[in-house]
Amino acid sequence: AQMRNEQIKKTKTVCTYCGVGCSFTMWTKGRKILKVQPEIESPANGISTCIKGKFGWDFVNSKERLKKPLIRKNGKFIETSWSDAIRFAANGLKKVSEKYGNESIMFIASSKGTNEEAYLMQKLARQIFHNNNIDNSSRFCQAPATTGLWRTVGYGGDAGSIMDIYKSDLVFIIGANTAESHPVIATRIKRAHKLNGQKLIVSDLRKNEMAERADIYLHPAPGTDIVLLSAITKYIIDKKWHDKKFIDERVNNFDDYYKSLSSFTLENAEKITGIPRNQIIKTAEMIHSVKNMCILWAMGVTQHSAGSDESTAISNLLLITGNYGRPGTGAYPLRGHNNVQGASDFGAMPTYLPGYQPINDKNVIQKFEKAWNTKLSVKPGIDNVSCIENIDNDKIKAMYIVGQEFASTGPDSEMVRKSLENLEFLIVEDVFFSETAKFADVVLPASVSLEKEGTFVNTERRIQRLYRVMEPYAETRPDWEIIQDIANELGAGWNYKNPSDIMDEASELCPIFKGVNYSRLEGFKSLQWPMKENGEDSEYLYEDRFNFPDGKARLYILKYRPPLMEDEEYPLHLNNGRMLEHFHEGNETFKTPGIREKVPDTFVEISNDLAKDYGIESGDYVKIVSKWGSVKVRALVTDRVSGNELYMPMNAAYDEEGINMLTSYNRDPDSDTPSYKELPVKIIKLKDK
Ligand code: SF4
Questions:
Q1: Where in the chain are the domains?
Q2: Closest ligand 1 atom to 44 CA
Q3: How many A from CA of 635 to the centre of ligand 1?
Q4: Which residues form the 4Fe-4S Mo/W bis-MGD-type domain (predicted)?
Q5: Second CATH level (architecture) for the domain 572-685
Q6: Distance CA 576, CA 676 (A)
Q7: H-type helices in 61-172, by residue range?
Q8: Cα(52) to centroid of ligand 1, in Å?
Q9: Closest Cα to atom 6, ligand 1: which residue?
Q10: Which of 3, 90, 391, 609 is most buried, judged by most C-beta within 10 A?
Q11: CATH of region 2-55
Q12: Alpha helix positions (H), 214-339
């Protein structure tokens, strides 16, 4: 037995499949993964994981992985050495900057990569190219939630810890498919609901698994969350059930805010949301009946043309009811990618330096200019989404994209792809030859999380370390090494020997990370930002003060804007979201045979009524058509959706069935996040496949 054990390596790592941030010990022999073992000391998950964390790793040995750098020559990709590839990549950026200026280059950091890698990407953009054109995937999903929280309470992160959700008397889930998207959080809620008498309210267009279990299930018309939430809030104040003491002591703007709610009557709410008024009253009564409530939400809220305002309405309701600053209370915007929180925290954002330090703050700029020995730009950068139109109007001429499937995850794939074709120079750094890589001039093969060191931040602001489980595949290299090489080829003179050096620099420059270092993150140890003056971390936020100069929260006045959906030619509404088995665009999980066997391709869910009207049965092929494109998928008739609602997973095995073949470039003006969920379509039954 000892002989056998000697060959088995046990390494701590962190899951890369969602923002819960489950950690576990991985048992390996060489490149073979024997077992994934969650530990009792795993801070976010304890002894739980889900199917993706447990079985989703075969892709690391997929034959389809990139092995060597590729350079495009005469329209063909040719394998090349690392030194040539780095030189080619650096020269390409340099040439474009000389020809069109520094601001003609856009940088995209990966939300799946480590904090240290996101930090280096933004440093490359800012220190070497003196621009703030740096962003990450949060623009596609949770930027509106961050905007809503910045407006009202001051930090763009979950108010409490995942463990605190257990302590809540009432969990209110809005526009989040928690059982499939954040399974381990859902397991905790299911347990507390069943065993501890925790109450559960779910508001969603689709009767998902959590909705089935809820004490109250609300089904609002698409894009009407502001009306629902504001009507609940107004009813609570009308009844004098608001937390007067909390508001007097800790919240600004109550009187004006209350006045602004005058149009959100039960009558109007019933008309606009389609939810009977007695259900709105029951919801308000249940909120009033408990001491501690937390609200969880995700892209069912944020990906709307009023996504920031809808997120703000959530925070307003929490403030009115005094639900901040204690375990079991607060706002939980559930993060999608494993490190979408961290990529933003560490500065991959067009208006913030690392640690959410604004680029328009003189002292901040001076501090970073001194540390990096450079002149920084104070002009807000271009983001992930506006970058598309800026390619079309010739402002952006080159891009460096790390670990993002830009060609499929941006809105309106056809438009994005045409734009990518117009770039003069494109670097793509990834694990597979992605759709985006097809447009590249140079493709750099990156190592996966199991092959490198670093840290991630999960949805509860928890910084956790991952260790090298196995050696890098073929000639792949960790992103931080590649970014450093490109920077140095451009004369940066960086000298990070390992990711720990990068973390030391970030913690030195960012008050919220002060005192964070690798020895404090050893093994399963972790720290939740913001770090306090006394060196401790923060399990939950806002105990004594909100993150504004006067320490008080701000109620934010909102106006309802109807969703951009009325269209006679396209009478149905297509909603979309995650499925349990697959991850995002599917580049990894569809390359994991066990998972692919279970769910081989994507589908569209159709209500019984609609199926009858159109003569469609489960398994039939249908064409879904929007103004912006069409896809061909199988139909699944189900009572999870009702009426004119359709639902499609956003994960696609084949590019041509991807949801973003259909979506539009319409956006939330406050965050620039595309309104992926506001999608009028029509459906056509196909005779054959
Ligand atoms: Fe991974 Fe999320 Fe599943 Fe945990 S819940 S194992 S982090 S996919």
A1: 2-55, 70-140+338-456+484-528, 143-334, 572-685
A2: 4
A3: 28
A4: 8-64
A5: Beta Barrel (2.40)
A6: 8
A7: 82-100, 115-123, 143-152, 162-166
A8: 6
A9: 53
A10: 391
A11: 3.30.200.210
A12: 225-238, 244-250, 254-260, 266-273, 277-289, 299-302, 307-320
Q: How far is CA 293 from CA 201, 268, 313, 324, 637, in A?
A: 11, 26, 15, 9, 35
Q: Please list, residue by residue across 335-360, b when 16 or more beta carbons sit within 10 angstroms of its beta carbon and e when fewer do.
A: bbbbbbbbbbbbbbbbebbbbbbebe
Q: Splitting the chain (689 residues) into consecutive groups of 10 residues, what average pLDDT does each group show?
A: 72 94 96 95 92 89 96 96 98 98 97 97 98 92 90 94 94 93 91 94 94 97 95 98 98 98 98 98 98 94 91 98 97 89 96 96 98 97 93 95 90 90 97 95 98 97 97 98 98 98 98 98 98 96 96 97 85 80 58 64 89 94 92 92 89 70 88 87 84
CA of 520 to the centre of ligand 1 (A): 24
Nearest alpha carbon, ligand 1 atom 2 = 18
Report the nearest atom of ligand 1 relative to the CA of 53. 6
Q: Which residues line ligand 1 (CB under 6 A)?
A: 15, 17-18, 20-22, 45, 49-50, 52-53, 182-184
Q: How far is the CA of 63 from the centre of ligand 1 (A)?
A: 25
**Fold entry, domain 143-334:** Dimethylsulfoxide Reductase; domain 2 (3.40.228)
